[in-house]
What does this fold into?
Amino acid sequence: MSTRQRLNALGITPRKSLGQNFLTDPTIARAIVAAAHINPGDLVVEIGPGIGALTQFLVQQAGHVIAIELDQHLIPALQAELGQPANLTVLHADALKVDYDSIRQISGGDGYPPDTPVRVIGNLPYYITSALIRRLLESELKPALITLTVQMEVAQRMIAKPDEMSLLAVSVQFYGHPKLVMRITPSAFYPQPDVDSAVVTIAPHAQPLYPSPNSIFALARAGFSQRRKQLRNTLAGGLAITHQEAEEILLASRINPARRAETLAVDEWITLAAHYDAQKRRAKATRKPTGKRLKTSAAPDAK
It folds into this structure.
């Protein structure tokens, strides 16, 4: 029975609003799972299991699988397809709102110890890709590897090099090393998307590249806010600082103020953030106190 026939039999209509495109090719499903390098003791978090195209192979290889599904209508269908494997927990939730810091505790029993390797796998709609990656990599979950199926254009943006960088590229590469694993044509899905898809793995960096991610992303959002403008202008406007202050930060970072955001590598954003934070500390230290000083009462005369 085809995926379309199975969905019809289960009374499921793919929802375009949720970006639902169901993988139909089991050979590709096996290849995606293989790219995740799952070991028998691993805890796997699957985003958007659908009716189990990947889940059926994940439960065969992982210690435990937590499948996070937003569409509550798909959960009975998933259980009908797979039965109820002892090492599968299905969680009805929005992947963008899940508390990943404590997700180990919902895997049954006493949960998994903190040193259990965690791998994340999922087929993501474009509109949640960047936000979800950041949530995952900033959480205490600390995945060993993230394996995602995304639109081909999104995959290319994630692995981009300077001159073609984007806010997504900076976000992903700040946290880990992305790698394009394979391309998937529309015919592998039902309904067929309009564009090719790709499987990307993200191997998180062993240590954070910079202790203040908020500064990195404040700068990057400002820099990419007007792509065709020079950094001296975009940083001034986006950060609400003067053009002189923007130029000072850029020159201190040895970055030409006339450059544009797409030309900067991640290490340059980090250098820029260090000088931006230093400038804020200096400004705070030299800022004159505001408000009136309270008068101190004289000590009463001793009697």
Notes: The chain has a mean pLDDT of 89. The CA atoms of residues 51 and 78 lie 4 Å apart.
